[in-house]
Here is the input.
Amino acid sequence: MRYLPLTDTDRSDMLVKIGADSIDDLFVDVPEIARLDGPIRDLPMHASEMAVERHMKHLAGKNLAAGDAPFFLGAGAYRHHVPASVDTVIQRGEFLTAYTPYQPEIAQGTLQMLFEFQTQVAKLYGCAVANASLYDGSTACWEAVAMATRVTKRKRAVLSGALHPHYAQVVKTMAQFTGDEIADSAPAIQTEPDLEGLIARIDDETACVVVQYPDILGRVSDLSKVAEAAHAKGALLVAVNTEPVALGAIKSPGELGADIVVGEGQSIGVGLQFGGPYLGLFAVRNPKHVRQMPGRLCGETSDAEGKRGYVLTLSTREQHIRREKATSNICTNSGLCALAFSVHMTLLGERGIRELAAENHRLACLAADRLDKVPGVKVLNTAFFNEFTVMLDGKPAREIVREMADRGVLGGVSLGRLYPGVEALEHALLVAVTEMTTEDDIETLATELEALVKEPAQ
Amino acid sequence: MNAPNKSGWKPEMQVADDGLHNGPQTTTGNRALMLEEPLIFEIGKAEITGVDLPAIDPNAASRLGGLERDDPIGLVGLTEPETVRHYTRLSRQNYGIDLGFFPLGSCTMKHNPRLNEKMARLPGFADIHPMQPVQTVQGALEVVNELAHWLLTLTGMHSVAMSPKAGAHGELCGILCIRAALEARGNAREVVLVPESAHGTNPATAAFANYRVENIPATPAGRVDIEALKARLGPDVAAVMITNPNTCGLFEPDMREISDAVHEAGGFVYCDGANFNAIVGKVRPGDLGVDAMHINLHKTFSTPHGGGGPGSGPVVLSEALAPYMPLPYTARTKDGVVHLIEEEQADEFAREHFGGELSSFGRMTAFHGQMGMFTRALTYMLSHGADGLKQVAEDAVLNANYILRSLEDLLHAPFADAGPCMHEALFGDKDFGGDLSTLDLAKALIDEGYHPMTVYFPLVVHGAMLVEPTETESKASIDQFITAFRSVAQRALDGDETMKQAPYYAPRRRLDETAAARKPKLAWEAPEG
Here is the structure.
């Protein structure tokens, strides 16, 4: 077996040293009834690298890769170009095969990277402090709600209807066990989100208001009014961002008054990967809130010779110290995805993230204008970054998406898939456009939609 | 004793008073291949970028709702050569499995086969969107299903929830299933029992699910005190969370009896599967009466640890808990087929297979789970096969016992007399000379070129040192480690005060963690002036 270095001679010699007659002597604590007499049945025996590769390639070949189709999906996961050097760096064994930096003297590579990552995220979000990552945007969203309840000592969270429905479901799932009260609703199909309606739901019992920016329909709106209203009632504003590239073009949530900013970092460096692993980003505007944050934090310090160095810090918030009183149960986070994000962000820099954002917006405007000209297709948004909602005549958008897929076009995410059973949304299609989208792709989507919206609903 | 390292450096090499190799200070602070590296914010510039993109057209239309970001973000960029060099230099300040022996107990730092990396990067897996129409991702669903089949077969359990993102997330999933199942019976109950030796994630998880945590004591042999446990069981106990093999590296021989007693009292058994690698292919947790167990794919099935994740924590469930699992999930039907069930099909599937009782507790994450980890874990399983996985467990346990028996004459090994250990060997700091502690020994091991074992965990042993060799070390590697470990252990027993300043040869000397916490500096700030 190519991964197991012990030889049979080694094994015998070691058993002698141990004083055991056979390997089974070492499993003596396993009750008789639970011992298996040979390899587990119904599973294949070991296979060569070549054979395994053949099998996996066969399975991979059954999928339609985004790169092989005109591609317009978003809704919380975006397809961006990842520079080749990002993958080169994250495949270095010193990063790939290290673990949580429990021994900082021999983990300065990971720790300095995390310190840089935290700084990059904090700046992008317009916040003071970011943590060293959580699992993904949706779990970060729940952690933000949980943190807000700790900070305000209140139990009620108000979710904007335009928060990603899966994020809202994660929050509601968790809240049913913690006893927190969650108020939410499905988004209304309108050009501008109903911020006044949201503000009206904030009261003296509200721990936080959760608003997505840009929102699930791709709309971009000024959060500062919501921030003011929340603060007036002693509540926190949690801003959720699922497309970090947008923050190269639009004001940061921190600038607009959000207290906790969380989001998905997958767009930068990580890739689509069928939904995971992704990268949960978590930041706070007020450094006073740091001790209520979940997850690992990397901090600067110095060593015994006075040299600058980095350590994991404020661990008394965490489960391995605080156990049942911890701010979160998280242990393993998304370290390698944080590295990928940080390398990509270093390559981009201030100039690159702004140019990337501008190119996304330029192409998205182009696509919106083109699609709006298609008879039976109407663009909903007035403001958007790289994703917008179109209303389709004829059949439900979900069917149209499936039919496009049959023809090799990945034409977007239907709101019917995101909100099954909500009739008011079933003719809406979310279209995301990134720097990877070509003008030919846009033309193909326009042509496909033009043909499909003409067909009558069944 | 043979020279521990035939290639060169010897322990008797002269060391200057300041603990450094004799030689002048360098201007750069570098020491040949040990290279210092500034922060990107100290070398990058706002106007530099390593990505060629079209220049921004100032006259381009903008539909950003008047929210243009006018102020500087504060980021800096580097070109590609500078970026690659920056991270390459940083990487060299890290210890990883690729570099050497990494016996971090409970974390299972085994070799990460590179085929797994290659397979995960196939565009058919890496470049697909979670919301693509299902007809375009059949191969991906097959990977999930195939992995689920392996996990169910290896554990002898009924169903598996694939979406949890890491071990602690899996624990939460299991406890929420238990809570949902109890609520369905009309009473969620109040208490979760956790052994003193448990991972900190266990009590944190139970508390997050709104349970009160109570400790179960251990016996002198390092096992759960079954009599104390039985005495505490009652109508208020929702579940018992047990790690098996436990965090002392020992198998809980009374596991079946514990499960029966918990079930008798109307509770559920949660098994922390962090140490499943010791018994994979040898024992099926389903045969021990377990109701829920997470499996750390990044431990047992060797997906890389990545400097702190990503992990993946699928949860296998008993028939009693299966109807409550989060969406999306997979389940095997009587015809042997494994299905992936999302919200829409959930009702129909439940009617067909759970007698109409759909009771999923909800959704734990935005999408389907850690696909990138699934492809790696499946590749690992296919490579090893049923025979190879059994050998994995046997070699891991053999290596740990070999270390235990090679050190027990020197170091306090609290449970060595109780019989063999499983995949990790546990020692304590009893009889260390002077005021030396486990931490000093760990730092001295760093100088010897090793990543230290897990220290001060489990909490039930004073100055605990938990050594997990895994199955991917050669005998020569383990022998060299034993030689090195014996030498630092002897120094600790002798009260060698020079250990208090170790490490001497790492990229950094001991770091001041107290100062870091007292006045936290958690982001770079531009120097004033």
In short: Residues 335-372 of chain A form the longest helix (38 residues). The mean pLDDT of chain A is 95.
